[in-house]
Structures are given as structure tokens and as C-alpha cells.
Amino acid sequence: MGRTLPSATQLMLNEEAALSRFRRALRREDQLTFDDLFTSAQKHISAAAYAAHALPFETFLMAMLLEEHKEVLRMRKIIEMLEEMHA
Amino acid sequence: MPEFSGWLLDLFEDPREGLILYFIGEDGMRWRLSQSFPITFYALGKDAELRALWQHLKDRPREISLERSQRMDVFKRQAVTVLAVTINNPYEARKIFQQTANRFPNLEYSDADLQISLRFAASTGAFPLSHCHVVADELHHLKEITVLEDAWTLKSTPIPLQILSLSPDVAPHHARPSYLTVEILGETYHFDLRTWRPLLVNLRALIQRYDPDLILTDWGDTWLLPLLLQQSEKYHIPLGLNRETGRCVSWREERTYFSYGQIVYRGQQIHLFGRCHIDRQNAVLWNDYKLDGTIEVSRVTSLPLQTSARVSPGTGISSIEMVTALRQGILVPWQKQQAEMLKPAMDLFTADQGGLVYQPRIGVHKKVAEIDFVSLYPAIMVHFNISPETILPNPTADNLVPALGLAIDTSQEGLIPKALRPLLEKRIEMKKHLASTPTWDPYRKNFKRRASALKWLLVTCFGYLGYKNARFGRIEAHQAVTAYGREALLRAKEAAEDMGFRVIQLYVDGLWVQHPDKTQPEEIEPLLLEIQERTGLPISLDGIYRWVVFVGSRQNKKRPVANRYFGVFQDGSIKVRGIDARRRDSTPFVSDAQMHLLELLASKPEPEDALPEAIRFIRERLRTLRNGQVGLSDLLVRQRLGRKLEAYRTLSPAARAVLQLQAAGKEMRPGQRVPFLYTMGKPGVFAWDRPQHPNPRTVDVERYQRLLLRAAGIVLESWGLDEEKLTEKVLSDASQLTLPVPRKQHPLKHSRNIPGIVNPTVNPTLKNKAQ
Amino acid sequence: MNRQLTIFPIPKAGKISLVVAPRGVVQSLMTMLAALALRGRVIVLDGGNCFNGYALARAIRQHTHQVKDVLKQVMLSRAFTCYQMTAMLAKLPIDGTPVIVLDMLATFLDENVNFNKRQRLLDNSLNLLRRISEGAPAAVWARTRATPTGEDQQFLAPLLETAQDIWELQAPEIPVHQLPLF
To answer: What are residue B134's DSSP bridge partners?
Structure first.
């Protein structure tokens, strides 16, 4: 018995495709940033699948936020280190 | 009165005597016994229809007896009223059942189309190749049969099988064979295939003298036996392939089917009576588990040896379930009617998922422990009692399947757990036994093969639960298994993290974990115990990697893929998944080189130290390739034909090769593997099985060079040498008279300027050799 | 993404509505299903493994935030063989709950089952469906395949005969992304 619902990977591709008009109208540098967001969300695709949310885009947004916040924390650490060095 | 101990070799229906059984005696004698063996099928339905059926059959008391009875319907979870139709001679059963089913199509039927060996095993306990004690009367009617070793015995007494092996000198679809090699009892004979009369006479003499139990052939199903039968008729020299006189051999048609999303081809089959025939080239998983494994499958599934050699593990699992059902008096439905329960669509989001799989971080990871649940899905079925009849429609708080809105009835062991438990336990026992068997032990190989056969059955049993035509399949049960699987893996992850491990990767039934201070097996042990405690399922340490590398997908190397990795364990052994060295379609030239590179990396404490040697090795391989010194058979690609030719929009290389074969009058079916060479110009391939010899000068050296560099790049990338850098480094060698070739350039553009083919010598022994 | 082919009127009791259309119609069917689910319970039988829960959830979301509650109104069962399809129709409660059958013919086009047997089972199924439709809205989608065989027509014919309200739709045009410049 094959699966009935599309896989989380497929869902993410669908969501990306649904935003293709939005992406097209962005500046080139923003397009690349936009792509980055989806690439980072892809890291949590199995968690998103496990969550099994009926509106998966909400989970994908959360995954993007998660990666963004990780980056913020990493940056904060670097800044603290630099501050200590210069203190 | 004959009485002896021996092994049940073969059994089949007979028009006059009912059931015929062939035995190999411990004393070397061969026995042919018979038994009257009435069999019963059941009809279920409305009273009026059942009455009509009874009216229709009641006047044939010599052939058929009828009875109103109650039997257990596993899907309805209760006994139902049935009309039991007992047919005195099993030989007539198929015909009578078909007529009945056609005439009374509105009735449901059970126990209708079961193999006689399954029925015999269910009623007597004796299964094919079982060691048993037999009592018969003067007329050689079987009176008593007692099994001495059951199918779950770990070390069974070896069967003294007399084996005759027949093999042509070359694959018949590749070239015309010129002689036939015959082996029996260590003696080897070569018979000329151009002179049929002496061949037939000699072969007949050998069969008569040695009376083999098993005829083991290469291409016997698809080529040799049909040819022998045809010639034997032409020359009026009967060969006596059957031990049972007066019977013709039995032919089964070729078929192509889907299994796990993959297309599979199985050639036509020829079965014998009183002896067995196995075609090594047409047998299932022969390369993996050989005769030892095939015998094991036969014993645990109760399928005759000739059948067990040729059916998928799914059929094996189905047989085990059916024998269990017969023994329990549970109806085996002919056509399953049971559909999915009506459930809120909301539930589908959680239920319609597979196993939990992480996206690994691409690159090298050091000191990683891989731990795997032992046969996770079968263990879940057995441990949590998952079976079609144990799924409860109205869940209470007890025994709730994680997040599914289903509950499991644990008051009685279900049919599926009952069928699988001994299989699972035997596999675990064998694994333990293997771990403690020294490598020099002569039985180790036998054990490994049998363990592999059991593994395949167990791997399949989960998929079979979800297969639409499975008699005891049920979608909710299938979903419950994956739900428990995800739960178990997450609990394992939590246990590992609670104990300070970092989780590198999760994959359905295994996890890869890392801890700065825990790098020895005994330091992992507490984690294993904790996981077992939290999940109730057996888990074991597969090994600790010195290093393991997860690589990206074939299409996009930045995109992680869960099951594509390679690594070296602390004991130096190498584990490889999903890359060329493991893929059946990659050429030996490429996969051997990739494996060699891995061995080089594994041979040094720091893999970096192996890089200079690796580069030398790649240069050397490429030089050999360009000098035309790589044997053509090492350049063969074996791709599977994915569909019918008409269905291709643009022809794949495999399809183009098939087109060439078609032009030469050779037909290929979807699911068959097509060996071919990459050549220059159009059509870019040369099908290996064409009647012509390939011209070594036409080999597309550039393409093979690219394939090798890509495969090497996958392995070396983590140490700074990806395909591009490698290409640069290897091809910039001044001793090479070739210019570096840009990657992915169209092969046609190079057709006039072929670098390197200076001295196209071919290994002469390969020209006529079989693949 | 796929644009909706059309929005079907909500089926009414007393007749069988039939949509004959290619796979792309699923989106619109899910919109119709959402409209039904917003009113109360609906039963969906899926014969072609094509129930698109995500499209349904999106369609519901356009009307309400309570997506889960509305999704719970949709009762689903999937059939993978023609035996199962017939058995499921026989088991449905006749209590006025609307019934939608998705890709009804898929399981009947299974060459592993004897042709006569399949025809007989389809007849049974249609009788059952007729009975259900007397008291409840019933809609069937028959999927047209890209490469139909003779059998497709043979199995569609009785369905066309049984239905009273028939919508035949062609494959949609390839969606236009860019406006023509000339």
C-alpha cells in the first residue's frame, strides 16, 4: 500500500512552489536569502513529518525560525567573546 | 512393514493415490509413500446460498463430503457458520473449488487455494526437509509420521542430499554454449552440446546410477531443461528427470511484478516430481544465502524446496502465517474483504508515515557508536501483539498505540505474533551463536546463510502486513507498527541525550551517537540497557566507528541523504551503504576502485595519511583504463530495465541496450538487468549479450574516467579532494599525454579525439567468457 | 500551483453526482468536501489512494480557524482492492450522512482479479450506492487516465448509467506563468 499523503519533503517543495510568484518579484540578493531560509528549514524535515500538522507551513516557518535563532545565539557568543578579548 | 527415520524431500497430489511423499532414508534408501489426504475448504455467506451450494454438491458422496460447522473468522473476531466441503482426493480439489466459486460467486471462501505442503505441515507437523520418523504399511501407505527436529532447531542434522549439478560453459543468452559440465559426488564430466545422442545417453546413465535428489542447474529453468526435454523427445531417449514415473515435468510461466516499488522479473520455472530442480540463476537471493538458506526457508515456511527457491520472502511469510492459522483452526480467506475502518481524516496525518529518518550532517564524524534495534518491526509486532484481529476499534485508555487513536487487545496472543515469534527468536539465537562462533568453524558459513534467510523473511513481514492482497494484512496494524517504531526511536534518542550523548543520525531502526569519553563497547552498554528499559525492545551495538562519513545525494551533493554513508569500525572493518561500492548497477572497475580507496583510508590511523597513495592508485587505474588493459567485463554496467520500452519518453542507456538486443532477436522484460558497455558516438552503449563482439576501441574511456573520478571524489571529499580537485590533481600529471577534460562535457564532442587509446589490448580470456 | 478546475455544487440527496475528470480535479473535490464538512459529518471512500488531506485543510482554513474540528467531521476509509470497495459500501450506515467516493474505478481496473468478478462487484457497488443516495447526498469521482484502455470505458459505462448528474471535465491547460509579450 503506497502512501496517501505527500511526504514532508514534497510538502515543502509545494510550499516553495506556491511562493514562486513572490520569489520572482524579489531582488536577486533577496531571492538567494529566500532560498537559504528553505534550505535551513529542510534540516528539520523529519521533525516536521513527525509533527504531522494539517497545515505544515506553520511547522516549516517554525523550523526556519529555529535555524535563525541558532544563528543569533552563535553570533551572540562570538560578540561576547570579542568583547571579552577587547575588555 | 517399512519403518525408518529420514527426511521428507517432496510431496505432491496424485490423481489415483491422493498424496505422494518422497523420503530420503538415514540408511541411504529412497522411499516413495502415499497417503489418502482429504482436504477441506469452507464456504461462507447467506443461508439460502449455502443451501444452494449444499444441494449442488450433495450427490457426490464418493468424492465430496459436506458438513455444517463453525470456524473462527479472525477479522470478525468470532466464530462464523460455514459449509465445510471436504474433497477426498486432493488432486481434484482445485478443479472442484474453481467450479464451485464460478457457480456461486456471491459466497465467500476460505482455505481454498493452499499448497498441499502447508496443509500437510499443519495437520502432521512434518514440513519439507524435516527430519522425521516414518511408519508405513506393506502397500507403502504412510501410517505415522513423527517429527524428530522441528523447524526452529538451531543445529539440525545435515541432510545427505545427492546433488547433480549441470552448467553450460557460457551464459546462453550471451553466447551459444558449447559444452555442459556435469558434477556429481566430486566427479566432473564435460558433455559436448553439439552431439546430442551421446550427451543424452550419458546424462541418463548418470541420473540412473546416482539417482540424485536435487538437480542444481545454471539456466535450467529458462534454457537447459527445456532444451534437454526437447532433444530427449527428438532422439527418443527419456532422461528420467522426474523420479516419479508417468509424470511430465511441471512448467510455470515467467512473470514481472512490483515489489517494494521495484520491478522484479522471474523467468519461467521447471519443477520436477520426486526430485527437486533449482536453477541457481533463477533462484531468489541465491547469491546471498545459497542452498543452506534455501533449505532454511523451506523448513520454516513449509514450502517445498523447489518452491522456496523461487518465491519472494513475502510468499514465505504468508505461508508461515497460513500454517499457523490452519493449526489454530482460523479461516484463511481466499479473497480478503476486510477494508480500512472508517476513521476521522484527522488521524491520517499521523498514521500515514513511515519510519523516523533524520537528515544527517554531511561530512566526517569521529568515534561514533551505531546502535540498532534487533529486527525492530517484527519485534514490535511480537512485543506489542500487533495482528489484524488485535486492533480494537474503540480505544480505551489502555494499550493505546502512540498518537494513532487505536488500541491493541493484549488478552490473547494474536495470529501474526504467534507466527513470527519462533522465527524472531531463532534469528536472535542464531545471531548470538554466530557472534560466539570462531571464524574457522566449518559450520559458520552454514549458519550465516541460514541467518540471512531468516533475516529476509523478517525484513519482509512488516511490508507484508500492509500489502493489499495479504490474507492477514491490515492497514491499521501496519500503521501501528510504524507508530511504535517512531516512538521507540524517539525514546532511544531521549535516553541517549539524557546520558550525555550527541545524536548524529537516526534511521528507522538505528541511531548513531557520539560521546567524548565513551568510545569503548563496555561504555556504551549502560545506554543499551537504558533504551531496552524504556522501549521493551532488544537493541544491540553494531559497532563503534573510528570515523564515519555521511555523503550528499547523487543529484545534489549538498543535500543530505539518510542512507548514504561509509565508515571504518574500531576493528578495521568497513561498512558501506548507498555508494557505488555497494550498488549493483555500478561497474566492477568503479566499485572495486572505490572499495580499494576505502581500504586505503582504513589502513592508516589518520586517513589523511593515505591520500598520496590514493592519488597514485587513481592515476594507475586511469592509466590502465586508457591503455585498454581493463577487461571489458570489468567495465560492464548492469542496469535494470524499469519499464516496457514503449513507456520510455527518452531512452535510458539500459533501454538503448535493450533495443540493440531486440534487433538481434533477444527479448528483455522489465525487471531484468541488462549488462552493457558505454561506447562512443551513438547510441552510446553496447549491449553485452549481442551476438557480435564489442570493439574495445569504441569504449567510452572518458565516461569511465568520469565515473571513476566521481566515485573516488565521494570517498575523498571529506579530506579535501572532491571530484573537481581530484580531476585537476590526477590529470595534471605531466606523464599523461592528455589534456584535462572538462567535466560533464557531452561525450559526442570527443568522439574524434580520443585521448589515450594507443594500445587497445583486451584481456583475451574475457572474450568468450560468461559474464 | 494547480488551479482549481471548477467548484462543484454541493451534491444533494436523491441522486448520484458523478465527476469524470483527470487527477487534477482532486483540489476542487477537496474544496467541495470542505464545504460539506463545514455543515457536518461526511464520509469519504478513497479507491485511488488520492485523498489530499493537506488541500482539504487549506480549503477549510479559508473559512475557519477551527481546522482540526472540521477535519474531525470527515470520516475516511481507503480501499485498495475491489473487494474492499464493495465491502465498505455495504457497511456504510444509511443515516443521511453524505458520501463521497474518490477514484471509484481504480480498484476495479486491477487485472489480477477476474474480469467477470470485477464487473459483478461493480454492479453490487453501484446498487449499494444507489440505496445510499436515496437518503443522502452521494458524489463519485471517476478518474480518467492519460492512457485509457478498453476496460476503462467498460467500467465507466455502468457508472454513467447509474448517475443522474454528470460533470465531464478535460485535463486543464498547462498553467500560464508568464503573460505573452506579443
So the answer is: B4, B145
